[in-house]
């Protein structure tokens, strides 16, 4: 049978139909693009609540990131230190804030991983927050004041064992990373050193400088300027490897206690039910801040490490850390009412 040929009218119609469909498709793409919501843009300053007082690693990290986040967001990010009660005051306040992006909180190993194991009554829970992301990790170090006769880790252990219950150490508060790190050290070495909790690293640091307490554990940022002047000695690092900022300081592990490893970490959270677009915008601003060369240089100088994770990854990280530090709490038999 001979093949039929298109009529003079059908071919133009087909071309017209294809053109029409193409135009419709393009219009659909444009409409789809227009339907995408614009990134959230804050209209007033954002408050970043910090669970500890000024002067410590939490405060240093928060202020370092706040300035750079403000550049991305186009609004100031104001650091609000709310120390006390093992960080629960700040966490509870943030949990009760409006879920609109204008109040966020600096999550910390103490408030998120330690407090659930150590406190019988916790005024906040995971369901109260939406994780924004992990920011940085800060290895813990062990330090003594210049007035303490022990000038090395071995000498400090010998002094503590010769005078059980006579020496004291300070921390940023019950449940803080410094508290847990020193208790981990006590379990590992068998020393008896009295814990003196403070409302933040700043207050602890002042008493360490004055000789009111003998030792302390915290992240390096709060100690570094005083190490340079000789008013504080860092006698050991709680990290798995020596710190690049303190290459001459041996780790606890290499001084006879293999496997010893302690570090604190920081991340951002928002109140539960904060819109996903707001969470995404805040995470983007934080991640960009961590990529700024001056921020990376400061973190390196303070022996800190940028460790960006998104909200879902941060939630999984918190769960794993809660198990690890919960084990420390049980072994040290720590409990705070």
Features:
D-Maltodextrin-Binding Protein, domain 2, 337 residues, six-stranded mixed β-sheet, disordered N terminus, 11 strands, 11 helices, 2 domains, alpha/beta, five-stranded mixed β-sheet
In short:
With 337 residues, the protein is an alpha/beta fold. The protein has 11 helices and 11 strands.
Biggest sheet, in brief?
6 strands, mixed
> β content, as a range?
15-25%
What number of structural domains do the residues give?
2
Intertermini distance: 96 Å
The largest sheet has its strands arranged as 2-1-3-10-4-11
Which oligomeric form is depicted?
A: single chain
Proportion of residues in helical segments: 40-55%
Structural class: alpha/beta
Shape label:
globular
- How large, in whole angstroms, is the Cα Rg? 27 Å
CATH architecture of the largest domain: 3-Layer(aba) Sandwich
The H-level CATH homologous superfamily of the largest domain, spelled out, is: Bordetella uptake gene, domain 1
Fold and architecture overview:
The protein is α/β, with parallel strands linked by helices. It folds into 2 domains: 46-138 and 264-332, 3-Layer(aba) Sandwich (D-Maltodextrin-Binding Protein, domain 2), CATH 3.40.190; 141-255, Periplasmic binding protein-like II (D-Maltodextrin-Binding Protein, domain 2, 3-Layer(aba) Sandwich). The chain is built from 11 helices and 11 strands. The protein has helices at residues 10-35, 57-73, 88-95, 109-118, 153-162, 177-189, 201-210, 224-228, 276-290, 293-301, 311-332; strands at residues 46-50, 77-81, 103-108, 129-139, 141-145, 168-171, 194-197, 215-218, 232-237, 263-271, 305-309. The longest helix is centred in the first third of the chain and has 26 residues, at 10-35. The N and C termini lie far apart (96 Å).
